[in-house]
User: Fold these one by one.
Assistant:
Number 1:
Amino acid sequence: MSSWIPKTYKTWNWPDYNRALKRRGSLAVWFDPDADWKAKPTGKRGRNPRYSDASIQACLTIKVLFGLPLRQTTGFVESLLTLVDLDWEVPDYSTLCRRQKTLSVAIGYQSSQGPLNLLVDSTGIKVEGEGEWNARKHDGSKRRLWRKIHIGIDEQTLEIRAIEVTGSKIGDAPMLPDLLRQIAPDQEIGSVTADGAYDTRKCHDAIAPRNAHAIIPPRKNAKLWKPDTPGARARNEAVRSSKYLGRALWRRWTGYHRRSRVETKMHCVKLLGQRLAARDFDQQVAEIQIRAAILNGFTALGIPRTQAAG
């Protein structure tokens, strides 16, 4: 049997993608003079917030993007507003810290053409503790704390469509139904691709009601389930197909290799920082959601379009 030769791919929209990459590093920042920088009256009892969620998210976005402390963030935003001749008042560091706990982050995305093919994965990110080298040198004496990020991206646009943050002890599979609930009910889902950790009844039963095809490799030595639900019957078909075709051919036949794109997106999330700056859990959730909003903004500028060469 001949050895497998990997394919080579060529980017056919390189000029547009090159311009998009340059724009990602541009320092041009636009502030809409008509934006709601001040909060509107809520009509509820108590003191009305001074700043809108959009203004708080704008400040925290600059903080996350440039890795600044809160005090330096306020100074940076003040200088930007001075350059564009806007006399807006900038939230102080304590206001940013307090509002980050309850901030509802707006994560923009582009709608894909046709059904949504969702790619799901999870990873851990450090919150507290020394680095790997220092922990090994000193026998890991300092406490180390991690958070787990669960995301689902659109295969076509490569933008994050669903995101959840949990503790490090929460598994991957229990969070898939929560990710699917973040997709609008009227959005047609074509397929959900995930690794073998999601081969559970709960995951398949969450995918089946959305009329989506589950591309999840069955575990080794997987047994057939009792066909009492649509999800179980679909999973049994995957078990039979993988045994008949072989696991390698089944992955190529189903397009399972597309899941590598969500792993690349996870790498991009960590390029904005290998650890979280916030210490409160709610603040950490907002910080990760802001990272997702930044990456979606970068992706909207342009992505590479490739095709097999030869």
Number 2:
Amino acid sequence: MLAVTGMTCMDCAHHVEQALRRVTGIRGVRVEYPNGVARIDSELPLTIDALNAALPKNYRIESLSAEDAHDKPTTSMLGKALGAFDGSRRSRAGAETPLITTSELTCPNCGHIAREIMPTDACLYFYDCRGCGAQLRPKAGDCCVFCSYGSVPCPPVQANQSCRGTQSSM
């Protein structure tokens, strides 16, 4: 697993993924924007310099220490990916980090993963798992099912705002 810097949205992750796929010897690439990581499967050893040479200049690949790689959440893990925001919503150069509106809900009962678009103007209190049919509800202290079972917390939490008291269901 490698760190990817310079990404600000899901389209950025797509651009990085496409550029890396063109590198000779790479069999597969998966770039996760919320976590800022890339997983690369290659036929032969590749240098960081070779990977960076393939990327547009605003993106960079860096090695992760074993400890950092262990601490990085992935979209297949159960629970919240709060690490994707380093626990804060700090501005960079005066620009606010864009909200992530796609999250992967993982059912705690059967492990089924569903990619869902999060509402930006409401919290999702109830969600019916497509794998086992269980109705998911937020855990105590969480505002919605995305904060309890999603790979990314809901947009109001990302923006350090309280939920607006409205609810939605899928």
